[in-house]
Write a structure and sequence with these properties.
- Helix content is 17%, strand content 29%.
- It has 5 helices and 21 strands.
- It has helices spanning 2-25, 235-240, 252-271, 354-361, 371-377, and strands at 33-36, 47-55, 63-69, 81-82, 90-96, 104-112, 117-119, 123-126, 158-161, 166-170, 175-183, 221-224, 247-250, 274-283, 287-289, 292-294, 296-297, 302-303, 307-316, 330-337, 351-352.
- The strands form 6 sheets. It has a 7-stranded antiparallel sheet with strand order 9-10-11-14-19-20-21.
- Bound molecules: manganese (II) ion (2 copies).
- One manganese (II) ion (MN) is lined by residues 358, 364-367, 374, 378.
- One manganese (II) ion is lined by residues 358, 364-367, 374, 378.
Length: 386
């Protein structure tokens, strides 16, 4: 009996053991365990995230990755972006893409098995601020007033980007529509005026080419748009201003007095700690030079403008130029008649608003500046006593 008792006990013990093992095998799987890794290599639009699947919860991991959003606690059903980085246990890395610059994001690792999806902790990060639209001191920092392109088909709004200035050329008027350049003391040195007026051979070869003699005996000066005296650091910089694409037929009294005095005033501003973004051009048809009125010169090949205009944005010399243009930034804008009578008034008596020049030319100045700032600064007329 005693012996039988021991036998029974042994059978019962083994049965319980089997039952327990069997029970463990039939235990229902649970959600996996996953943790979110640190976010690395954060840039403007991309970053690197990832996770670690620590436990599969008793069922194979069928999907894993990260999901992210500008809202907290993104899920695989509600996200700005999601990755799928394979299956199984262990560590994985995830490429986060298509982010907005300077924006706070929340990212979570996830892992899915047959039970469902589990998440790691939320990790937040902020993307880098966007690089400025154009670099500091760029000749076209303010924008491209006519949306000029360097496409020969666009022959009346043909973009030419030179080291010393940028311009839009018009193959009908045979002058620039506008020339745009940056000015501070970094462009000023001791190079002499080169006076080497010449054809701009960088124009498409089948276009009419204005030469150094095209204005001869016309009664109009070969008037610089970007001034020779704004580019005196090196001989080649100064020489670069003497291409005929930087010239307009300018009444001598406009060129040599009124216009020249404004150019000198700009250089004085630069020498007193400012940097300037300047855009200038001719407009209209028909001016009067030293031989009287003319609408064209050079056998009708070159149009004589009726006015000359200029927009000058003045900020303290420094970095982050575009961001420093505010509703209080000083802007000088002028429209001057292309006549000998021009010099009967001072340059500052020709001050107008930028809006006036936009209305006249159809160009959009300061298009790289926010419209709310443009609205204010373009409507005002500079009234600083000169
Ligand atoms: Mn600057
Ligand atoms: Mn504008």
């Amino acid at each position: 009996m005693k012996h039988f008792g021991i036998k029974l006990f042994t059978i019962a013990f083994v049965a319980v053991l089997f039952f327990q093992v069997g029970c463990k095998e039939e235990e229902k799987p649970s959600l996996p365990t996953v943790s979110t890794s640190q976010v690395l290599n954060i840039e403007e639009q991309v970053a690197q995230a990832g996770g670690i699947v620590l436990d599969n919860g008793g069922a194979p991991i069928i999907n894993r990755g990260v999901c992210w959003s500008t809202m907290e606690n993104p899920t695989i059903a509600d996200y700005d972006g999601i990755t799928n980085d394979g299956s199984g246990l262990g560590e994985y890395s995830s490429a986060i893409t298509n982010l907005l610059a300077n924006t706070k994001y929340y990212v979570r690792a996830y892992a899915t098995n047959s039970v469902g999806t589990a998440y790691g902790d939320t990790v937040s990060f902020i993307t880098l601020p966007a690089a400025p639209l154009v670099p500091d001191n760029h000749h076209m920092l303010l924008g491209n007033p006519s949306s000029a392109t360097a496409d020969e088909v666009n022959e009346n709004d043909y973009l030419m980007e030179k080291n010393q200035f940028h311009l839009s050329y018009n193959n009908t008027t045979r002058s620039a529509n506008w020339v745009s350049w940056h000015l501070n003391t970094s462009y000023l040195g001791s190079a002499d005026r080169q006076d080497d007026f010449r054809t701009d051979y960088s124009l498409p070869s089948d276009w009419y080419r204005v030469s150094e003699t095209s204005y001869r005996y016309s009664g109009f000066d070969r008037g610089h748009l970007c001034p020779s005296a704004d580019r005196t650091l090196t001989i080649s910089d100064n020489s670069a201003t003497f291409v005929m694409t930087n010239m307009m037929p300018q009444a001598p009294n406009n060129n040599r007095y009124t216009w020249a005095h404004l150019e000198g005033y700009c250089r004085d501003l630069a020498k007193s700690g400012n940097e300037l973004f300047i855009i200038a051009g001719p407009h209209g048809k028909g001016g009067s030079g030293s031989n009287g009125y003319a609408e064209t010169i050079d056998n009708e090949n070159i149009v004589v403008p009726s006015v000359t205009w200029k927009v000058i944005v003045v900020i303290e010399d420094g970095d982050n130029d575009l961001a420093r243009i505010t509703k209080n930034t000083r802007i000088i804008a002028v429209i001057m008649p292309n006549t000998q009578e021009c010099s009967s008034k001072k340059w500052y008596e020709y001050r107008v608003s930028v809006d006036d020049i936009e209305d006249l030319t159809g160009f959009d100045f300061l298009s790289n500046v926010s419209t709310s700032i443009q609205e204010v600064v373009e409507a005002g007329v500079d009234n600083v006593p000169i």
